[in-house]
Amino acid sequence: MNRLGSATSPYLLQHADNPVDWWPWGDEAFAEARRRDVPVLISVGYAACHWCHVMAHESFEDEAVGRLMNDNFVSIKVDREERPDVDAVYMTATQAMTGQGGWPMTVFATPDGQPFFCGTYFPKANFVRLLDSVTTAWREQRDAVQRQGAAVVEAIGGAQAVGGPTTPLTVDILDTAALQLAREYDERHGGFGGAPKFPPHMNLLFLLRHHQRTGSPTSLELVRHTAEAMARGGIYDQLAGGFARYSVDATWTVPHFEKMLYDNALLLRVYTHLWRLTGDALAGRVAAETAAFLLDGLGTPEGGLASALDADTEGVEGATYAWTPAQLREVLGDEDGAWAADLFEVTSDGTFEHGASVLRLARDIDDADPAVVERWERVRARLRAARDERPQPSRDDKVVASWNGLAVTALAEHAMITDDEVTALAARRTAEVLAERHMVDGRLRRVSRDGMVGEPAGVLEDYGAVAEAFCAVHQLTGEGRWLDLAGRLLDAALTHFAASNGGFYDTADDAERLVTRPADPTDNATPSGLSALVAALTTYAALSGEPSYREAAEAALATVAPIVDKHPRFTGYAAAVGEAVLSGPYEIAIVTDEPAADPLVRAAHRHAPPGAVVVAGGPDQPGVPLLASRPKLDGASTAYVCRGFVCDRPVTGAGELVAQLQGIRGE
Asked: For 564-573, how does the pLDDT look when each residue is reduced to its tens digit (9 = 90+)?
């Protein structure tokens, strides 16, 4: 009996009609394996995963394969986005056994959950042979299998252990990290490494902050070049905005077409701050279009943001997005069709499959003649309308707390820097969803869907990202309730996730016990739980004036500083937070009756140092510590620039404030 029909996870629901007797993750499945005395097959993936779909079509939808699985295993299907703790434990085992990881992840384990054989995608013939081999080994070599499982658990327990070397995160470490990133940089195409190439959003955010602190032209150029290369490449949706998960090549030409919320949230921050620091027109446009994609492409009726758009359309990857010259002419006519083919680099040979091409932007359009820009906008609109008539990729519409937190922070920052009321309203609306649905009895739940919160408990990254989001909305609105909510989450995290050395576990002390308790301090596709929490602790300390939260942030950074020093590509968010800590972060309080229209507020947002907090509102506003005991000067709006709640002389003119802030940046 397949037990996935009542699941809230879209990924699990994709498998609800398989001829496999799937179980959701839970004690009942392992109890059934013990009762039947059979091993457990754990299959981990997510709804937008292309190769997960392939393995499902080849194997899990096959009646004969289903019988093999049902006769010899208890099979458990796991949504990695819903249960990142389960994914982390078994991904560590998979990487330890095979040297690599990925999804779908296929794990064979004892009825106690100890993994003894791991892999990723298996073609059908290989998978059938593997099922037979594992079944035989379980029956005939049980002791060896169980010893293997125990050895793997011991190994991954060491890999996930908290308690490595610590050292304070210093200016020298961050400067060394920036130099190492420059050495590893792809000077021709931007980014780091070869194919497949992922958007290095967290490293770009770090480099932007490093440039602000040091004035390094190299750090800024690495960001500018990479941002332009990605925005002109096929990894960026030239018609509707938003970035795909990664490029299958080193040139950003052909993407893996799934669009993830977390990538676009983090990239929105990068492009917003690149525009803030340089005024680059392309960066400003891409930031605005990415924000619009978050709302139009991923918005849910309840106000949250969906997790992803699928890579496939009706089983074919990229079918919605690719074009041939003939298709362009059909939509646009011969003249505009030829013009679009030239601009978007659509050729008869094609850059994708079957002679089709992924749209790229061959030339600069943002500073072009107004007539050219008008034509480009008209052509884009017509192509977008035609594309909307094609079959569309599926959407994973579950709301993940941490990813929505990342998006709220990005939207709030974009709203504050650009004065965009639409993104301001969206940031607040999504924050309300997190506060009202995902906070239950003072703790966080990981996911919700269709307005109903799920059972999985929040992990460390949820607490960090959501608390940072609430701090951002506090700055956006000047309302004290958001700072109070952030403090509650941080107190819960410090109580339930802290390790003895200043670091943190990824799961709470009262969470479900797995074969080992995960604790990974490195940033991957998203900020690590530790990095996310340190970001929130740092911002909250600056907003509240409570030094204990800063002390906790510095202690946690000390646990990851040795990795920043040696492997900065995998600690970008931690390094970015480190820049904020070493900068102060500065606190900018603006006492004003009209925060939305005050030139002081605009100047503060445009010129703030790395990681600075900015709060504006009336004097002594309840729940807003930065505005306490800070009066107006001679009845005029007044700005206070502070560090550790020690302030420079207050100023009333925007020019004076900019001069103060530029003086900080020049230090």
From this structure: 999 999 999 9
